[in-house]
Amino acid sequence: MQTFEIKEDFLLDGKPIKLISGAIHYFRMTPGQWEDSLYNLKALGANTVETYIPWNLHEPSEGVYDFEGLKNIEAFVKLAQKIGLLVILRPSVYICAEWEFGGLPAWLLKEQGIRLRSTDPRFMEKVRHYFSVLIPKLVPLQLTHGGPVIMMQVENEYGSYGMEKEYLHQTKQLMEKFGVDVPLFTSDGAWDEVLDAGTLIEEDVFTAGNFGSRSKENAEVMRNFMERHGKKWPIMCMEYWDGWFNRWGEPIIKRDVQDLAAEVKDMLEVGSLNLYMFHGGTNFGFYNGCSARGTLDLPQVTSYDYDALLTEAGEPTEKYYHVQKAIKEVCPDVWQAEPRTKELRNLGTYPVGNSVSLFATKDKMIDSQQTVYPLSMEEAGTGYGYVLYSAKLKNYQHENKLKIVEASDRIQVYVEGKLEAVQYQESIGDDLVISGSDGKKDIELEVLVENLGRVNYGFKLNSPTQSKGIRGGIMQDIHFHQGYDQYPLTLSEKQLQRIDYTAGQNPQHPSFYQVTFELNTVADTFIDCSCYGKGVVLVNGFNLGRYWNVGPIRSLYCPKEILKVGENEVVIFETEGFEIKELVFSAQAIID
After folding, report:
1. Does the annotation count 157 as an active-site position?
2. Cα four-point dihedral sign 461, 297, 452, 285
3. Across residues 314-329, what is the average pLDDT?
4. Dihedral of CA 460/463/469/472: which sign?
5. Which residues form the Glycoside hydrolase 35 catalytic domain (predicted)?
6. pLDDT > 90? residue 296
7. What domains sit in the chain, N to C, each tagged with a CATH number?
8. Looking at 157, 315, 379, 446, which residue is catalytic?
9. Which of 239, 263, 444, 450 does the annotation list as catalytic?
10. Does the pLDDT of residue 41 top 90, yes or no?
């Protein structure tokens, strides 16, 4: 049985080891990609892989757990061990990671006033239930039980959010209660304020840092902090940022290759590091996160390419080879090899076969809920995707004011089937002026609300705007309207199967477009969305994620595992009135 200890050095079987690690998120890629990605990390010269574990992915509804397919953390860890890598796990209930709500489940928001990441008894009880299922799955994977896991994280960048040491203490106790016996750690930024607030150094929980430049300067801050607490631990950067994430409507962020290689070399000279990200992958489905900048919420794109050492699709980049060389210069005895590459292919162009308006098929597709006042997205459904609110307003035969009160994040207002307005956080609540059809008793109102992604970092984590859909209500003139039909649109397999493509077309409405086609062979590819507006693409029922013509990325990565030899079905949900005529594959990402 191997041993791992943290003393003045990291010790594996009593011998000093420099941890050279890379972040690979099993949940941001299909299982068929895992082996190549892990092998390429090993070939880089690394000896360790690190991954977060997102709570919201594994407990999508309270008390309902899922560890199958790309959620199979046990299979991922065992594969890493087979390839010869040690493993660092970060099962903290909050992960940030540019992931929806930082990994916290949307259903937590059903508890009015719950204080997240705190000793609020309601929160800690839900953490206890989750850990009672998750941690026993991880226990046999620990080095102490013959597995490859050498460390686990208690909390992530807590010093950038709170300072409640009792919360950290209770979380640590839960992990230990359910069987964690490898060393524990926290990771925070490399400055005193967040290190003081976010660490459990007084309980001998190892202190790691997160940074991506000024390696020796930040290492010195970490060293001084530990020495003030009587520790002579090794220096470890748990997130060595080699690139950065991207947001809709903003240019792609790139990092200079030579600069990164030089900084990696500096970091390895003074300690250990985990490259964040080694392989970024994809924010499939509705799991992209959101940045908070002042009053603005800025959703992040579907691709989590991150300008990492491997592309979103897993191809080695120029960075890979420069960092590989830098590792060899500092650690000449590491094993390295040529990385594996893959072929990305254009699989052709196929016509749309059927289409239907959401408004025409909604009653067959979705079980609606009738209420006096509108439900939030979490109350009406899972809290992800969209929710459509339908109402009949009294027609006063003249212009009326209309106002949507307290809604998130993006609303499209349709009056008598015609788009009247699109509003975002900064404009939701502005008055609209609407009119009904002459002679009609009622005005048909449809409001489609999209959750663009919950904030995953910072001061807005407990903000009311994290609850999506309509929280306040809809006002006609100066009174709140009563009487709603709510249609939570999650694009689940059940919903997709119930789409009635004969119900009626109207490309001006949010619409579904169906493409069926035959493939003789499958390959990794991209779907060209450059002629689409905004929406989601589902391939054989698998939600690839969102596209949006604001850019900067105008395509969606499609792993070959999602495709089939034989008949395939692609469903495109388009919300902007773009009439989609064809599905176009591409051998490369399409970037503005």
Report:
1. yes
2. negative
3. 98
4. negative
5. 10-329
6. no
7. 4-330 (3.20.20.80), 349-355+498-586 (2.60.120.260), 367-489 (2.60.120.260)
8. 157
9. 239
10. yes
